[in-house]
Amino acid sequence: MRHKHGYRKLGRVSEHRQALLRNLACDLIENGRIETTVPKAKELRKYVEKLITKSKNADLNTHRYVYSKLGSNERAKAATRKVIEEIAPKFENRKGGYTRIIKTRFRRGDAAEMCIIEFVGE
């Protein structure tokens, strides 16, 4: 039984899963919306919404926390700056639910259910 397991493994080992979520989070922050599979989007939603909630309090510790969660490269640095300076202030009066998942189609080839994940209000 998988009661209270807490997260999806997505068919990957932990390091690969962490890298996948970091890359998807950077893509979502940079572009505002991305298309991916439903299980990945549901995991990404939890990951990104925690970052945005933490980013509402913009201090040095927040910058370091978000940067560490998004990786340590130039892309993560730009994404950190964008989430703290642009995205988090838009959701200042919102207590959660910063993203929306819209189911779109079934992928040709493996029939995986695809969806679009985007920020609310964009």
List keywords for this structure.
52% helix, alpha+beta, 50s Ribosomal Protein L17, Chain: A
Draw up the topology in text:
Elements: H1 14-31, E1 33-37, H2 38-55, H3 60-70, H4 74-90, E2 99-106, E3 113-119
Antiparallel strand pairs: 1-3, 2-3
Describe the structure in your own words.
With 122 residues, the protein is α+β, with helices and mostly antiparallel strands. It has one domain (14-119): 50s Ribosomal Protein L17, Chain: A (Alpha-Beta Complex), CATH 3.90.1030.10. The protein is 52% helix and 16% strand. Strands 1-3-2 form a 3-stranded antiparallel sheet. A hairpin with a 6-residue loop joins strand 2 and strand 3 (113-119). Helix 2 (38-55) packs across helix 4 and helix 3 (60-70) crosses helix 4 (74-90). The longest helix is centred in the N-terminal third of the chain and has 18 residues, at 14-31. The chain is globular and about 45 Å long. The chain starts with 13 loop residues before the first helix and ends with a strand. The model has no long low-confidence stretch (mean pLDDT 94). It comes from Nautilia profundicola (strain ATCC BAA-1463 / DSM 18972 / AmH). InterPro entries: Ribosomal_bL17 (IPR000456), Ribosomal_bL17_CS (IPR047859), Ribosomal_bL17_sf (IPR036373). This is Large ribosomal subunit protein bL17.
